[in-house]
Amino acid sequence: MNEQAGKRLRGRLIRGIGGFYTAKTEEGECFTLRCRKKFRHQGLSPLTGDEVLFTPGEGEKHGWIEEIFPRKTTCLRPPVANVSRLVIVLAPVPEADLLLTDRLISRAAAQGMEVILAVNKSDLDPSLGTVIAGEYAAAGIPVFSVSARNNTGLEPLRESMKGALCCFTGQSGAGKSTLLNALLGLQLETGDLSRKIARGKNTTRQTELIEKDGLQVMDTAGFSLLEKEKLLAPEKLKERYPEFMQYEGQCRFRECLHDREPGCAVQAAADAGRISLRRLERYRVLLSETREGWKERYD
Ligand SMILES: Nc1nc2c(ncn2[C@@H]2O[C@H](COP(=O)(O)OP(=O)(O)O)[C@@H](O)[C@H]2O)c(=O)[nH]1
Ligand SMILES: [Mg+2]
Ligand SMILES: [Zn+2]
User: Fold this and answer.
1) What is the pLDDT of residue 203?
2) What is the CATH class of 76-219?
């Protein structure tokens, strides 16, 4: 052991570029770090969002990441750690895709993340927020109607984001960048600029953790929407629907998957308007996908 070794500090990785990481301490001080080889041997690579112990470098020299604390959540696309609240941005244009939304909610649940829905562009359609709130009320998922363009409805959304590391996701064009800009007072590129041309197609933007006014947000394009989930047993999918839980055990068949089996208590709840019938129907679409994936699991 090197007795001279500098003291260790604790911080959070807010970005990583080309093997250099930036850690920010609770006091807001930033340090440039590299990663010890031992992590590579463990197959562990630091991710933005990681909580780390590090030895700061002397003067201009970089320091070293010494320990990575256990992660609450891990995402590989984008590569980020410890996101615990997912903000799904929806809008009237492009038309809100609720099947995609339910798929994201299911993934988030599997990861132990909470979900918030932000229904943006309320200036174009003020009623969409209410419609979507109706779909997700029984599931206990908060829905906020906002207009990033007109800065309306932002405060309640901001409040609901506090106390967790958040990441935005949703269809391209829904207004994620515009909304982040409006919420945090930033200047991220939005669809208004011909960004792909301006930036060049192959430039990958680095994920950055932004902290401002009590909010912690990952500035990333959001979770990959196409990535297929493999190896989910079909009977596990329903566990990701909080609104089904109180009817568990009340169906005629103990093994009921709420897929049109006779005497299904979840179907009865939907017929009685206690849960959303449309979300139940979308569940069945995801269930059939899950079944297919499960059948092919040894391929
Ligand atoms: N009318 C309206 N347009 C918006 C709003 N928010 C974003 N937009 C527009 O929607 C387009 C896509 O926005 P952008 O933030 O780039 O979407 P992203 O792909 O989800 O990041 C841009 O033309 C924005 O100006 C809003 O609240 N109202
Ligand atoms: Mg964007
Ligand atoms: Zn059932």
Assistant:
1) 46
2) alpha beta
